[in-house]
Amino acid sequence: MLYWLTALSDGGDFFNLFRYITFRAGGAFITALVFGFIFGPPLINVLRRTQGKGQPIRSDGPEGHFVKAGTPTMGGLLIVGALTFSTLLWARLDNPFVWLVLFVTLSFAAIGFADDYAKVSKQNTAGVSGKVRLLLGLLIAAIAGYWSAQYHPAGLENQLAVPIFKDVLINLGFFFIPFSVIVIVGSANAVNLTDGLDGLAIMPVMIAAATFGIIAYVVGRVDFSEELGLHYVPDSGEILIFCMALIGGGLGFLWYNAPPAAVFMGDTGSLALGGALGAIAVATKHEIVLAIVGGLFVVEALSVIVQVLYFKRTGKRVFLMAPIHHHYEKKGWAEPQIVIRFWIISLILAMIGLATLKVR
Description:
The chain is an all-alpha fold. Helices cover 64% and strands 2% of the residues.
């Protein structure tokens, strides 16, 4: 919205700053951060009053989690509210990729909100039917995949770019949409599975958002794309503003989610943020890189899949408990120890993901 202030510029004054994505990205970060600090306390108070007993705690979960009983959930509303307000304020509203990412984020947030509401109101961990959530997620992701393909440049539509090999493109044709669905829905659910400890999910999400913000900015500039041998995606640079808004909103939320958490993000936040990362990866043609940068989320999801399949086949468990962060809890690791080590792993994976931009 503020981009339109450039109409008041003569080319050399303050209003000219709004032409620059980097300036507006910084403004988006600050705005979302301040939004989180201002609206965090009143939102938490409202959630605490309306939810009563707070988020239900699994009876078969780690023993240490029972002390968290009564902690309100749906804190993802703070993150989603901050990043949406900030993005609408600072991004170019004529950019299709901005609306694409916002559409996926808000849609998955709505699914998560319904699930959180069902859990809190019924005081059990069942929530909305898994089939219903999956079907809605598939529909949203399919729309996003089709939408994205319409705005990719000629020669890139329906193509899968392979990192490191700059000239390798795999033509998926019609299957680009199902592939996009797998990326977006898989990312949403992987982040959702990771959100099991105070602060565990939000920091890796912010690290991934920072990484993809850089990627979006680079592939959205023809000069940087040519120099690095990347596929140029016009207009994708505006996604950097969304990413910085996510980081600002995420930090504002982490202030209240740091151990011991005053609020949980719930499915409202985890599904929204995971879906956003998947949508950004599809928009920037870096779907495979998401699997590297978000490797922690991949491992968390795989640990659940392996556990379920192996148990059905043998009646035994591979892990003491899945997702894998609970396995380490069962082994006696302290919660902060698990969280910080997983943050470190996420940062390492992000550096590896960024390295693929240069290694060609």
